[in-house]
Specification:
Blueprint (H helix, E strand, L loop, with lengths): L1 H23 L10 H10 L8 H12 L9 H32 L8 H19 L2 H7 L4 H22 L2
Pfam families: TMEM260-like
InterPro entries: GT117_domain-containing, TMEM260-like
Protein name: DUF2723 domain-containing protein
């Protein structure tokens, strides 16, 4: 039980660290490449060139409403959607790493020893925070681009596979 509480707390700590980092370094306006197209299409709910874009556009539209009618703030708030999606990706990555490390270090049905718990949590923190501060991921986390939300979808699905696999035995 203590293991689960520590695991959840550290996962949320990774989310908080990533969210603060990405929010503080958020692109305040429009980047030079596809981001302007994505922002304007999300703001007006228009069609863009990406497959899978309708969900991204609806989420972007919801975040653009936080601008309260100030069109100059729309890019900032749609960029915020990517930052929060990326932070959630980091959290699910932490939980994925700890689930895999636990499977490797603990026999089926057993509980990790205190020493193994520390190693598992350290592995999760190192992996998740290394990913948080990696150049490519950070770059896509601070601007309106589909990669942040796509990474979140992949990380949630992979984590759910591990979660369901451990409860179905």
């Amino acid at each position: 039980m203590l293991y689960n509480k520590i695991n959840n707390l550290l996962g949320w700590l990774c989310f908080g660290t990533a969210a603060i980092t990405y929010t503080l370094t958020l692109e305040p306006s429009v980047s030079f490449w596809d981001c302007g197209e994505f922002i304007s299409c999300a703001y007006r709910l228009q069609v863009s060139h990406q497959p899978g874009y309708p969900l991204f556009a609806m989420i972007g539209k919801a975040f653009s409403l936080l601008s309260m009618g100030d069109n100059t703030k729309v890019p900032y708030f749609t960029n915020m959607a990517s930052a929060l999606a990326s932070a959630a990706t980091v959290m699910f990555l932490f939980w994925t790493i700890t689930a895999l490390a636990k499977k490797l270090m603990v026999k089926r049905g057993g509980n990790p020893t205190p020493h193994n718990q520390k190693l598992i949590m350290a592995a999760g923190l190192v992996g998740a925070l290394a990913f948080t501060f990696s150049d490519t991921f950070w770059y896509s986390a601070v601007e309106t681009i589909v990669f942040a939300q796509a990474a979140l979808c992949v990380s949630v699905v992979f984590w759910a596979i591990l979660k369901m696999g451990s409860t179905c035995r």
